[in-house]
């Protein structure tokens, strides 16, 4: 799998060091609050597991399965998810965890739907990666692991056609 990468952006040790910093910020900001973390699947699964083990707060965890790429390397702009399986969030502070902020479609759609249908006390977001590019939908991200160029990346949960998620690093996929 490594030979399919054009270059490595972040090794596992660098990712873990950044997660330590994010966890301290999140722990500080949510101290004493009723927190529900919602991981956006499948891409955030590894990120979520490693980050949450570093946050020494009582919290609830749930997952939201979202689809937007449909096998390509560019988002379709169509975001599909179902909020009905989530717990009641009305008296909770919500932290969304996603693997990457690219076009903005996914996070913007989820935040809007949560605020309209669940009305939590607050909704914040945390992404492992944020692409330096113009967003198709404006979205504010509260916590960012790394800023990257507008390249197609895989590893550490990020995939191409469901492959490469288990790489212990983040790298740029060679042009397919």
Mean pLDDT across the residues is: 91
Strand order of the largest sheet: 3-2-4-5-6
How many angstroms separate the termini?
Answer: 13 Å
Q: How many separate structural domains?
A: 1
Radius of gyration: 16 Å
Per CATH, the class reads: Alpha Beta
Give start-end ranges of low-pLDDT stretches: none
Strand proportion = 25-35%
Largest β-sheet summary: 5 strands, parallel
What general outline do the C-alpha atoms trace? globular
* The CATH architecture: 3-Layer(aba) Sandwich
Please name the CATH topology: Rossmann fold
Q: List how many beta strands DSSP finds.
A: 8
Q: Helix share of residues? A: 10-25%
Class based on secondary structure composition and strand pairing:
alpha/beta
Q: DSSP helix count?
A: 3
């Amino acid at each position: 799998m490594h030979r399919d990468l054009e270059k490595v952006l972040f090794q596992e040790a660098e990712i873990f060091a950044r997660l330590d910093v994010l966890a301290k910020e999140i722990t500080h900001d949510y101290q004493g609050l009723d927190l529900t973390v919602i991981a956006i699947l499948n891409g955030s699964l590894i990120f979520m597991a490693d980050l949450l083990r570093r946050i020494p707060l009582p919290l609830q965890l749930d997952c939201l399965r979202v689809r937007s790429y449909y096998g390509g390397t560019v988002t379709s702009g169509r975001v599909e998810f179902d909020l009905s399986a989530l717990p009641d969030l009305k008296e909770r502070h919500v932290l969304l965890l996603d693997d990457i902020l690219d076009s903005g479609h996914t996070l913007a759609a989820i935040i809007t739907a949560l605020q309209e249908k669940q009305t939590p006390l607050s909704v914040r977001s945390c992404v492992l990666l944020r692409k330096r590019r113009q967003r198709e939908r404006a979205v504010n991200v509260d916590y960012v692991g790394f800023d990257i160029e507008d390249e197609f990346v895989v590893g550490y949960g990020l995939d191409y056609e469901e492959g490469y998620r288990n790489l212990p690093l983040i790298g740029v996929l060679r042009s397919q």
